[in-house]
Specification:
Belongs to the GSP L family. It is found in: Cell inner membrane. InterPro entries: ATPase_NBD, GspL_cyto_dom, GspL_pp_dom, T2SS_protein-GspL. The protein is α+β, with helices and mostly antiparallel strands and about 450 residues long. The chain has eleven helices and 17 strands.
């Protein structure tokens, strides 16, 4: 099961900083199992985080959630129109501007449309404080995936106001107004505001229902539920009883899980399932998408494989360019050879096909044109005794036929005539084309072909 680290920055009268009190716990994300709750300051949290990451990095939680106190993150419920809901992100600064002290541009503002209500929950905190929080946690390798206001988790029914006493501070929440955290000395004033606000809303409901015979509000505030990790003093009890009036009662209730952090972790799971969290890790502070633990384990292998694939790609790409260059070189050579053999062909596009066609024609051409027979007979006659005194000088042949022209040199015309008669006797059609006396030598040109 995935683990979740829940960090709670506790409200403090001394403000938030490195020495502000912090609680944290690691729990199953989908359960409310009892776990060890640690408490200290920010420095203690950083030391613990570094120790866990060094000793057992595989046990470091995937989900990290930070709960902000009401003294740091403000929360308001504001009415909105349907048009404002459609463009809520742009409308938020204008909706909250009147409720803020200071420049609205210096605030990180987030909103959540409430189901079934014409209202929106608006959370805000200084941009500088949000950035400082993220940077401080990042120093020890803590990267919050979710940052929410703990006051957005508290909720009550229509007839109850909740009070949480802790660290000299008090958190107050009702059904109509979101929770606020103030100094304990401001409780009488703030509790009166909450009671007065709810009574006004209930009186309005009574006036609407007067025509139906309703004379008293159905949802009067009847209970003030007090949550605390210790018993309150008699002075605090008397003060709350006086503020509640005769019709109200004070109800002391133990905190779910025995600690505020356990109760908040349980409420966090509920509202996360209901998608009702006012999430500060959005907008400019949106958490970058983080890879899962299993993927991070295989990331080195994937990196090596990626480098290998890249090198293979570069190798084959280079090989392709080299083969392309070689092909162009061989094409030029073959083209030059083809033009040398068949210079009359001027429309060469595919040298390979032209060469194949040329070789095919040469292979299927007739080889019985008589040339070889003439050459064989000529060779046989020249070796006989009748050819003595005759010396062949050059031989020409007709490519398209079987005619052969032989240039000879002889000692006399009689020797030429004897050689000519020997060729005829061998079956050739032999004639003397020319004969000249050049000194003591007769030069003759003989033409012959097969009979």
């Amino acid at each position: 099961m995935n683990q979740e680290l829940v960090i709670r920055i506790m409200p403090s009268v001394h403000g938030e900083g490195v020495t502000s009190p912090v609680q944290w716990m690691v729990r199953g994300q989908a359960s409310d199992d009892e776990t060890t709750i640690r408490q200290g300051c920010i420095t203690d949290l950083q030391v613990w985080a570094e120790q866990v990451q060094n000793e057992a990095p595989e046990q470091w939680p995937e989900q990290v959630t930070v709960l902000l106190p009401g003294t740091l993150a403000g929360l308001h419920r504001l009415p909105v129109t349907s048009a404002q809901k459609k463009h809520l992100k742009q409308a938020l600064p204008y909706l909250i501007e009147e409720s803020l002290i200071g420049n609205v541009e210096e605030q990180h503002i987030v909103g959540l449309s409430e189901t079934g209500r014409d209202s929106v929950l608006v959370g805000h905190l200084p941009v500088a404080a949000m950035q400082e929080l993220i940077d401080t946690l990042a120093e020890s390798g803590i990267s919050p995936v979710s940052v929410v206001s703990e006051n957005g988790l508290w909720h009550t029914d229509d007839q109850t106001i909740m009070l949480l006493f802790e660290q000299g501070m008090v958190t107050i929440a009702s059904h109509e107004k979101p929770a606020q955290t103030v100094d304990r000395e401001a409780l009488p004033f703030l509790l009166g505001q909450y009671l007065h606000h709810d009574l006004i809303d209930q009186s309005t409901a009574v006036q609407v229902d007067d025509d139906k015979g309703t004379s008293e509000p159905e949802n009067m505030i009847t209970t003030i539920k007090v949550l605390s990790e210790r018993s309150e003093s008699e002075t605090d009890i008397a003060q709350m009883t006086a503020l509640a009036g005769e019709g109200g009662k004070i109800e002391y209730q133990g905190i779910n899980g025995g600690s505020v952090l356990s109760a908040l972790a349980s409420l966090l799971s509920e509202q996360r399932r209901a998608r009702a969290l006012v999430e500060f890790r959005s907008g400019a502070f949106k958490c970058p998408r983080k890879a899962g633990k299993r993927w991070r384990q295989w990331r080195p292998v994937a990196w090596v494989a990626g480098v290998w694939v890249a090198l293979e790609f570069v190798f084959y790409l280079g090989q392709g360019f080299w083969f392309q260059h070689q092909a162009a070189h061989y094409y030029d050579q073959n083209y030059a050879l083809y033009k040398e053999i068949n210079s009359g062909d001027r429309s060469v596009v595919d040298v390979r096909n032209r060469f194949n066609s040329l070789l095919k024609r040469a292979g299927t051409a007739k080889t019985d044109n008589g040339f070889l027979q003439v050459l064989n007979t000529l060779s046989r006659v020249s070796a006989q005794a009748g050819a003595k005194g005759v010396e062949p000088k050059s031989l020409d042949f007709n490519e398209s036929g079987d005619g052969v022209t032989l240039n000879v040199a002889a000692a006399s015309f009689e020797a030429v005539n004897r050689y000519l008669e020997a060729l005829r006797d061998a079956g050739l059609k032999a004639t003397m084309e020319t004969a000249n006396q050049e000194g003591n030598t007769v030069v003759a040109r003989l033409s012959m072909r097969s009979s």
